[in-house]
Amino acid sequence: MNSFNPIWEAIDRALPQIRKPSRYLGNEKNSVKKDWAHIDLKIALCYPDAYEIGMSNIGIQILYHLLNRHPHMLAERVFAPWLDFEQFLRQEKLPLVSLESKVPLRQFDVLGISLPYELTYTNILTLLDLAGLSFYAKDRGEKDPLVIGGGNNAFNPEPVADFFDALLIGDGEEACLEMMEVIRHHRHRETKQKLLGRLASIRGVYIPSFFKFYYKNGGTISHVEPLLEGYKGVQKRSVSDLDTSYYPKKPIIPHTKIIHDRVGVEVQRGCVRGCRFCQAGYIYRPERQRSPDTVKEIVRHQIRNTGQDAVSLVSLSIGDYDCISQLMKDLMDEHLSRHVGISIPSTRVEQLTPAMMEEIKRVRKTGFTIAPEAATERMRRVINKGNSEGDLLTTVNEVFKNGWRLLKFYFLVGLPTETDEDVSAIAALGLKSLRTGEVHSRNIEINLGISLFVPKPFTPFQWEPQISIEEMYRRLNLIKRSLKARKLRLKPHIPEMSYLEGVFSRGDRRLAPAIISAWKKGCRFDEWEECAAFEKWKEAFIECGIDTSFYVERPREKDEILPWDHLFVEMKKEWLWKEREAAFKESFTHDCSVESCTTCGVCDYKDVRNRAYEHPLYDEEGRLFKKKTTTEIRHQDPSCPSPAIAVDFPQASPASSLDPPGQSFLCQFSKKGPARLFGFLEFVEHVRRAVARAEIPVRFSEGFHPHPRIKFGDALKVGQEIEEALFIIEIEGPMEPTILIEHLNGQFPEGIRLHSVRPIDSFLSLQKLMSRSMAAHDISI
Ligand code: SF4
Q: Which of 35, 107, 507, 722 is the most exposed place for a label (fewest CB within 10 A)?
């Protein structure tokens, strides 16, 4: 691999000494490697965090496969190098290279950098620096790659706006291709300035250099001057119909365990519940559902193409997906025999139903996180979280009654109007929940995850002050002092990091020099607890004359010009202010997907509107059971099978003590080349997934967490090439060893190869087997 690439050869030699070398190997199964000679536009998709975080990002997988479908474009991936790898590259004066072709970033036409959250800003600088590029867009030349950003944080990108040539505000599926087509046709034929002017005409595209900010003496913005005629603001981009929007069916299979190590299918985008602290709930409006049939088809393909044994149904509010119970049942019915489990993201308290729990526990009990957010009814009214303590305790009772032992709660501390009574109530509610669960088992635990509230742009709390670090500690101590049970574990976020997030969340362009200063002092991976370096950040802010309390602890006036006021213009600022007033009056704003429009301004009611799928349910008089006034409802007939079924899995039955014994095989394999750098657990997972993709009818253990019956010998040392090692696999019934070899070799990643397979008479441990004399014959190819 890459034998003519001296940069990669130098990196490859050093990787055994680097932490988690599999992060940098690339060329995973289902990744795409194109011939550079026949491509017009090369795009590096850069994620400013570690491989295992970036590979969990669904947006990256969507854009990667979408761009690579284009015959004249290629997309390759780059993740932020961990500290030791960055140090190695600097020592050896090597550039950062892409995972697919191992090409330095500077040779791409476009660097597309994700903006997932505020505390990745220093890593953006690492990516630019190791690409050999100037930080500021104005300092980069005509021949340098265009640097384009997008993602959650692009809704207020101002602290890093000067580093980017362009940013995409909103959904990327359509706009990204439109942008790349414009760049493909006009790059190198006209000046960068003219090209940026063309990009500005695409809905959702923000060119920071076309806006100039002016400030008052007190530091607030006096006005924002548009520098391109007719370009006064940017409307966010929104995919109107999620069901017809592209979704990959062959996601890349990571080399190492990633944060969300499962098939992830986005079933719904947007949420219109109106929780007043939740930025995602406002910026991704309206609610758009993917049809259950499409979801089932994607799951079917993704499981077959990855060998994953878990599916995650992704949504901001999974319980609002109208067909959730039926969808979970259908998925479990279809994939149960292959031991594929389902997990769901954190849910609203009242939406985790017994029917959902029943489906989840059919394969394995994946954990639950439920999000009360606040512990008193008063506080929940302020944030428009319309659920009660009774709802929570009912759900807790059901979870523990159904046999779960661990439950995670998610609370926010520091919300507007919060009192000490609201804070202490978190511990009290945790205790009540524990006592409720202990009726079913003494052996249970509850984790209380505590985030510290950071006011976000485009929410009703965008004008509110955030509490100071000292106050955050005081309130956390209030909870700690009230915690009276050992089985209630407090998991708070670090106050300093929440404060830093607060600086950038509502920050402006004057913060860019401080980000550079902090980066020069060594700040990296600021979201990671082990890398937290708040003292360096403090020094950087002082050096750059930044008063952080101006950004964090100051209330804003209603008519103050906010740094993001020229972006995302559909949502009315006046409407957000009314929501803020409603919060202080503790009044409820209803869900517009169920009742009337509350006139936030996002929908045009033609293309852009709430869209849901429902199995038709009728009341006694024949009317639709659930009436939604503003939502376009498409019906799924539950009696119709999915028309899109294209993949038939062989249906293996779970092993039981009544089944006839399976056939065991001793498999001899080698692990060389890039595969020598897999850790033992990474290797085990590669084998398990290859077995699943090859549709080998492996037997599973019994019990609550069935595992495929594959046994491995001693752990294999990272970096060492292995000529001959062994594992044992037990499968249902007889199988030709040659078939087993052929099928598995077709699925292993580069460097793992099965050489011989020998039938053995029982599923023993390797040690026992080796101690026996075995006269059987090898089957080799
Ligand atoms: S415009 Fe109306 S229907 Fe659309 S998201 Fe806003 S409140 Fe809901």
A: 35
Q: How far is the CA of 269 from the centre of ligand 1 (A)?
A: 14
- Pocket probe for ligand 1: among 268, 272, 590, the residue whose CB has the most ligand atoms within 8 Å is 272
What are the pLDDT digits (tens) for 15-58? 999 999 999 999 999 999 999 999 999 999 999 999 999 999 99
152 Cβ contact list (under 8 Å, min separation 6) = 115, 116, 117, 279, 280, 283
Of 191, 226, 261, the domain-final residue: 226
Main-chain phi, psi angles of 77, to 5 degrees: -110, 150
Q: CB of 506 within 8 A of CB of 562?
A: yes
CATH number reported for the structural domain that contains residue 697 in this entry? 3.30.70.580
Q: How many folded domains does the chain comprise?
A: 3
3-state secondary structure at position 211: strand
Which letter does DSSP use for residue 19 in this model? S
Ligand 1 nearest-atom number relative to CA 285: 5
Q: How high is the pLDDT of residue 339? A: 86
pLDDT digits (tens, 9 = 90+) for 224-241: 999 999 999 999 999 999
pLDDT-derived band at 648 (thresholds 50, 70, 90) equals: very low
Q: Tell me, what DSSP letter sits at residue 47?
A: E
623 found inside a domain: no
Pairing status of strand 406-413 against strand 368-373: parallel
Last residue of a domain, one of 522, 555, 584: 584
CB of 598 sitting under 6 A from ligand 1: yes
Which of 596, 598, 604, 606 to mutate for ligand 1's pocket (most ligand atoms within 8 Å of CB)?
Answer: 598
Q: Within 13 Å and on the Cβ side, how many CA atoms surround 441?
A: 17
pLDDT tens digits for 253-310? 999 989 888 889 999 999 999 999 999 999 999 999 999 999 999 999 999 999 998 8
Residue nearest to atom 5 of ligand 1 (CA): 286
pLDDT in tens, 430-485: 999 999 999 998 889 999 999 999 999 999 999 999 999 999 999 999 999 988 77
In 540-627 the beta strands, taken as DSSP E runs, fall at: 611-614
**Tokens representing 77?**
């991936």
Assess whether 268 and 164 both reside in one domain. Answer: no
**Residue partners of 243: CB distance under 8 A and separation at least 6:** 289, 290, 291, 294, 611, 613
Cα-flanking dihedrals φ and ψ of residue 165, to 5°? Answer: -75, -40
- Same domain assignment for residues 247 and 222: no
CA angle, 580 as apex, 574 and 584 as ends, to 5°?
A: 145
Which strand ranges, in their side-by-side order, compose the sheet holding 310-314?
Answer: 263-266, 310-314, 341-343
Q: How far apart are CA 524 and CA 674, in angstroms?
A: 28
Q: Whose CA is nearest to atom 4 of ligand 1?
A: 603
Nearest CA-CA partner of 172 in 113, 238, 99, 87: 238
Cis peptide before 286 (omega within 30 of 0): yes
- Asked whether residue 488 falls in the same domain as residue 559, the answer is yes
In percent, the amount of the chain with pLDDT more than 70 equals 91
Taking only the tens place, the pLDDT of each residue in 746-764 is 999 999 999 999 888 776 6
Identity of residue 433: S
Q: Whose CA is nearest to atom 6 of ligand 1?
A: 600
Cα–Cα distance measured from residue 182 to residue 17, given in angstroms and rounded to the nearest whole number: 43
Question: Where does residue 587 fall: left (phi above 0), alpha (psi -120 to 50 degrees), or beta otherwise?
Answer: beta
Please tell me the residue having the least CA distance from ligand 1 atom 3.
597
Q: Is the CB of 602 within 6 Å of ligand 1?
A: yes
Give the sign of the dihedral formed by CA 21, CA 27, CA 31, CA 36.
Answer: positive
Same-domain check for residues 263 and 353: yes
Clarify whether residues 89 and 140 are in a common domain: yes
Q: What is the extent of the structural domain holding 100?
A: 6-226
583 CB contacts (<8 Å, ≥6 apart)? 276, 382, 383, 384, 416, 417, 460, 461
